[in-house]
Design goal:
Elements: H1 50-69, H2 74-96, H3 101-120, H4 130-143, H5 154-174, H6 179-182, H7 184-194, H8 202-220, H9 225-228, H10 233-242, H11 244-259, E1 292-295, E2 302-307, E3 309-311, E4 314-316, E5 326-328, E6 333-334, E7 343-349, E8 366-369, E9 375-378, E10 383-386, E11 396-401, H12 407-410, H13 423-426, H14 433-441, H15 446-460, E12 462-463, H16 474-482, E13 486-487, H17 489-502, E14 507-513, E15 517-519, E16 522-525, E17 530-538, E18 542-546, E19 552-553, E20 569-570, H18 590-632, H19 636-654, H20 674-688, H21 697-715, H22 720-728, H23 731-734, H24 757-764, H25 787-793
Parallel strand pairs: 12-13, 12-19, 19-20
Antiparallel strand pairs: 1-7, 1-16, 2-14, 3-4, 5-9, 6-8, 7-11, 8-11, 9-10, 14-17, 15-16, 17-18
Length: about 800
Amino acid sequence: MSVVDEDLEAPTAPIRTDTSEEEPPQAPTGAGVDDDLDETEAEVRAPVPVRPLLVAALATSAAALTTGGIFGSWPARLLSFGAALVGVAWCFLTLRSIRRRVMYQALLLPVTVGLAALALLPGSGGNASFGGLIADAIKAGRLFRPPVPFDPGWRPILVIVFVSVGYAAAWVGTALERPLAGLVLPGVVIALTAITQPPGGQVLTGILAGAPLVAALAVMFGGDVRSASQLGSSFEIRRLIRAIPAFAGAVVVLVLLNNSNFLFPKPVYNPQQKPQKPKSIPLSEAQDKVLFTVDGPVTGPWALGTLDVYQDGSFLLPPFDPTKTKKTPATGTVIDKSRTPTVTVKFTTGDLGNTSVLPGLVDPVNIALTSAPPITYDPTSETFRMATGRVPTGLTYSESIPAYPAAATLAQAGPLTNRSAFRTDLYAPPAPPAVRQLLSQAPDNPWGRLDYLRNALLKVVVANGAGVPEPVTPAKVTQMLTGNHQGSPYDIVAAEVLMARWAGLPARIGFGFDGKNLEGKVYTVRPKNSAQWLEVYFQGYGWVPIVGTPPRAQANLNNKNTQVNPTVQASNDIAVELYIPVNLPSLKQLYQEVRDVILTLLPFAALILLLYMALPVAKKWWRSAKRRKWAAALGPRAQISVEYAEFRDWATDLGVGDPLDTPLEFLKKVVPDDQHLELAWLVSRTLYGDMALTATEADAEAAHELVSSLRRRLFGPQPTQTKVLAVLTRASLAEPYTNEVPNVRLWRLPRPKLTGRRRNRRRGGRRPGAGPRLNRLRYIRLRRSAPVAAGRSQ
């Protein structure tokens, strides 16, 4: 490091700033500011390059429009697009302001959270919490295929994500001068969201995402960023207009590529086309509400789906293939013309939650809708479902089926003719010895064999527990037949399905609801009506639900939501519920109570700590504004002094140099720099040299530009930890570089007053270094009443 001698000859010409590529020429002080605006309150604005901001805005807009396509909703696209522009605009405000840059950076997070909260207000409902709405939206997004329902909880997520992405992309492209790196973050968002677009919106998404991205690349590579930043906005606008023909051609290419499945290729592996394990929640955790109402001559069952694939001892949901679904017209459709419907049930949906399946009858023949929402028919599970999104509330429709055959009618059913079409519904592992013995005694008639096996099981089995899906193996069937005879309702139905398959009949598990509740003048179905049942295919009759209950069940004293069936008797193991009044002592330990209090107060303590840590930022900003307002009334000499004091306080916060050094002595403590040398001589000559009476507004403006450039370049190379500590530290507030310019006070706790002997002891000696503060700037006092200072301010 070279050292500048103190006797170096000072420049004699008036000092002007030597602008570099990082600091384009600025307009003179007062240019562009209204005459009515006081110069002391005018914001000093830094030039911001247009090209990197435009690149960041276009790239982030492409990512926002692509993400909005997942919901298939224009409000989602526009909300994401607006949030992206807010992030870029906030970066522009931050870079444009020199004096309030730190304040804008600190306000980014609270402003973003505030915008997210405002976006959540419309249509969110008064009882839902902020976190609950977001959790519900994410849960629904995992269950539905695109387009995902645009629930209110998605709005704050999109606002926070794209304000952050827009700000980050713009900051990297402008402040760090890396516009290509600024494209990386929006590019990652585009890559992650482009593969989850709904089939019907891929062309539109390709245009809305690809066109801005192509435009961003064209703007970025249209010229050198540093040199083009000095050409002005008019040059950028003319260049953008000349790129419109190429832009239109790029849109045509995007459409052609999309039609060839190049942009959105078909997935090699689709997990939805594989059997899935069923998921269920305990009945006690389900919210008691009206799911739908029914109006018809039957009491159920009301089907939502089936479990027909048997793998590794478990029954799985059948694979869902969207290409095999059939569109259903609103006027109704006949699914099986060979069967004549004679029973019709009218359904009106309530709050079914996150499901796209319409509750209906088993193996329906046709459906009729009063409205015309897009619905499809899944031939694998014989159910109707919404083409997109969840089942709406208040949807009214009717389903029709032939009347369910009686047992005597099923006894006349013949053998299955097309067994190859029912390979999945006939598959079962080898029957255990107990079942083989029953099969040897069963009649040859299909219904007779099934009825014989079911009766043998239901005579001995005891229902125990909830109907939660779990593996049911041949060993489990043997245990229910010859062991302890216990099994959950799901285990019993699964055992019936296996026994039907061992008897040679296609069988599967149907799930949904059974029964109805008379509430007023309508029949309702609630979560307590949930059930599983056996479905068997009989030649000439189709799929027939067979609902049965075991004659015995263990008493359950814990589940208060279970529907009681009076035909089911208690097992031999009788459970008696006794109520004995007992005064139970609280077993809650003291540390648990203390922990609860601490957890309650912890958020408030964290907020107070955050405000305390952010207090130096506000005080430094207020000190800078206070100093500059004071100096503007005194003239250029005071303005130069304030600018240099701000620079040295900033160096103190970074831990650079010695606060006692004069401007020329401080040159030795840092890397040699031409602008720093120029600033040191300008301050020295103005305060106690030949420019004390001749400093002008141009010199003050030059000092401001030099200090801004030096502060930015001194702050940039520092490690992240040093930057954070420099922003939050109170060093320059506690020990400012000089006390001859305005400062702000730190809030300190009052010290106790010393009396008697302690006061005398304190006066007896003096703390080392406790003398009067040094006059570091060493210039004459500037006051409003001083005639010399007043003359200079003119």
